[in-house]
Amino acid sequence: KQEVTQIPAALSVPEGENLVLNCSFTDSAIYNLQWFRQDPGKGLTSLLLIQSSQREQTSGRLNASLDKSSGRSTLYIAASQPGDSATYLCAVLSYNTDKLIFGTGTRLQVFP
Amino acid sequence: ETGVTQSPTHLIKTRGQQVTLRCSSQSGHNTVSWYQQALGQGPQFIFQYYREEENGRGNFPPRFSGLQFPNYSSELNVNALELDDSALYLCASSLGAGPVNEQFFGPGTRLTVL
After folding, report:
1. Are the beta carbons of A49 and B88 separated by less than 8 Å?
2. Which percentage of chain B shows pLDDT scores above 70?
3. Do residue B90 and residue A102 have CB atoms under 8 angstroms apart?
4. Which of A24, A44, B37, B56 has the most neighbouring CB atoms within 10 Å?
5. What's the CA gap between A74 and A67, in Å, rounded?
């Protein structure tokens, strides 16, 4: 059974810091891994999608890496801004289930 | 291009009642998936509809049911509401039912059961 874990559960950093969010999964048989952003009480905004054959994806200040063999992904946020404050969720699409399995998220606060 | 929309935004019901939530897919998308997100948790897959038929279901009881219409809009129905049904309900649309088709999420409906 696929399980997705995100560490840390919460993070508070000053503006300008570079930071790393972690995601681990137990079953490496995945189609892809996706990072989402969720503002309080709102829906999900897709940030980056990494196919199982890829090692990383970049979009602006965001970079996501995938190490399928070790069951890990990281989301790197460069030069963090207060507007980055949100919950970040990772989700994997497994061969066995054909459905997205989500972690519980990392709640990020960037203060001025 | 219109994104995924959901209605209503918020809803308050009492235990035992029935509720219907609605989702309008992104233009051109023929697949819709529904998720339940309890407070502080990640979304949990409820079920998926592809071309008006259920195409996969998560670990939810039969009182959670759905419909997809010819225009690919969708409804989630929950009967005999329980307190634990209080959550944010998200729908996501995609082009095709295959697992590698990226899903695009709506803003969600916040359901509170008293």
Report:
1. no
2. 96
3. no
4. A44
5. 9
Q: DSSP string spanning A94-106?
A: ETTT-SEEE---E
pLDDT at B97 over 80: no
CA-wise closest residue to A83 among A25, A39, A32:
A39
Q: Would you call B90 an interface residue with chain A, using a CB distance cutoff of 8 Å?
A: yes
Judge if the upstream peptide bond of residue B8 is cis by omega within 30 degrees of 0: yes
Chain A with chain B: Cβ pairs closer than 8 A: 57
Q: In the prediction, which pLDDT does B95 show?
A: 87
Q: How far is CA B44 from the centre of its chain?
A: 11
Q: Of A33-42, A90-99, B69-78, give the lowest mean pLDDT range.
A: A90-99
Cross-chain residue pair B99–A104, CB shorter than 8 Å = no
DSSP A27-90: ---EEEEEEEEE-TT--EEEEEEEETT-SEEEETTEEEEEETTTTEEEEEE-S--GGG-EEEEE
